[in-house]
């Protein structure tokens, strides 16, 4: 498999994630889509790093995983706060701040 | 690639630690605040406030000690140079003003807990790390560190749905932007094999697209640079990527809004200048034209949207989007004059914005609610000094002479004319004239609308509170609406806005001296 194929797969995953963020209404699903985008970048880094025989891409992947974990903690906190106020985690109910 | 000889060098650790000393001091103080939070009762935020201020002062001290050195640290991920000295000064000043503003704001609401100040310190240290990082890993980590602290701070007002909603929108769009940044990094890495900005720069410079690299690396590089630009433009709140800005600025507690509008924006522009002067400098895909369009759209949209706002905080949020457009002009103009003009504008910008937010906090404390534009009709008669200060900040934001905003615009626009961007400057000047309308409209309303005809004005609320002293809530409002910290912020901002407008020479020299280190790596 060529490294280009890996990058094409990564791009497809990234686009699926981006579409998920734009289309989905559930806060948790949106976060999963964001994770998908992050992991598309992970896949790309691992593939390129392996192909070029370098190590810095692999290091980047580990940092991305750590950051994704930290963000999960923050998002769940926000989701719980949002649920307490609105009784739902549908983002259509986040409609107090408008143009 | 790791340089093993550097790793075993005797001074490696020492130099690395020195290169992040101002940030490390802030992080240490942030942890001290967290630890002390264990021993104090929860409502006691007094100590953490002073510790945070001391932390900022110590960080300034280290910055001053190190200010003449250029230090590379952590295998070339971090650099401390003159450029950082300028940005650290601006970011620390913005943090200092934010902490002073916070005291008054949270005292009035009785929600102060020590974690707030430690989060502010973490966020400031991350901004400083961001500006001094020259490696894509380090840039990503700093952006996330800064943003995660800012997400929590935005949603800090517990039980207020606006605050939570602002945090949620900020989180989703901020993380979305980070994903774009990451995916851009993948393509740049695929095209060049480097993550260090200057190594990428050298690689592109040599145009050495060797056979063992991926054959279509030029396309990859272009894709990567575009995605990277999208990720950074989110943080700078440029036009198509600005949508989180008004909502999270509006929902956040006002001191946090001040931190986001000054510190985070300054840090985002700092790293953008670093990235732009290195890896975007080859004009692949005509990035100057892309930025030209972004700047015009950002200015125009920000000003038109600000015109329609009735909420003061949202108005300043939209006007800060427009200001980002003006700042971008300096970067497009580029070179020594353009970048130093941009730096001067950023310095001027934090003072006028912090001053305006100080006054917004004063308004908010009077009403303990969101600030509608109608509520300060006739304010100028009851509180002449406050109204005069507010007018001065608004005039500075509009760019009237004698204020810092005018000098900032002057430097940026003249640099753009020197580089031949006549149309850009023409559109920007039209925009400033247009923006002056909604700034001056507020001043007109403060001074020229009769407050007798409007029962909802703040001046009347104050009158009411004087009459009903026995009413407990009103008494609190009367006591707390102005404290010494708030007055200090407003006076500091006034002085600097005036000095930067009248004697800009030492400050522009400071900016110009710091810019030279950008190209001397």
Describe the fold and architecture.
The complex is a heterodimer of chains A (99) and B (521). Helix content of chain A is 79%, strand content 0%. Chain A is built from 3 helices and no strands. The radius of gyration of chain A is 17 Å and the shape is elongated. The N and C termini of chain A lie far apart (49 Å). Chain B is mostly helical and 521 residues long. Chain B has a two-stranded antiparallel sheet. In chain B, strand 1 (71-73) and strand 2 form a beta hairpin.
In terms of topology, how is this protein built?
The complex is a heterodimer of chains A (99) and B (521).
Chain A: H1 3-23, H2 27-52, H3 56-86
Chain B: H1 4-7, H2 12-19, H3 21-39, H4 46-66, E1 71-73, E2 78-80, H5 82-109, H6 115-132, H7 136-154, H8 161-192, H9 197-206, H10 217-236, H11 244-251, H12 254-278, H13 287-307, H14 312-333, H15 335-367, H16 379-382, H17 384-398, H18 404-418, H19 422-448, H20 458-467, H21 472-480, H22 484-502, H23 505-516
Antiparallel strand pairs in B: 1-2
Helix pairs in contact in B: 3-4, 3-6, 4-5, 4-6, 5-6, 5-12, 5-15, 5-22, 5-23, 6-7, 6-12, 7-8, 7-12, 8-10, 8-11, 11-12, 11-14, 12-14, 12-15, 13-14, 13-19, 14-15, 14-18, 15-17, 15-18, 15-22, 15-23, 17-19, 17-22, 18-19, 18-22, 20-21
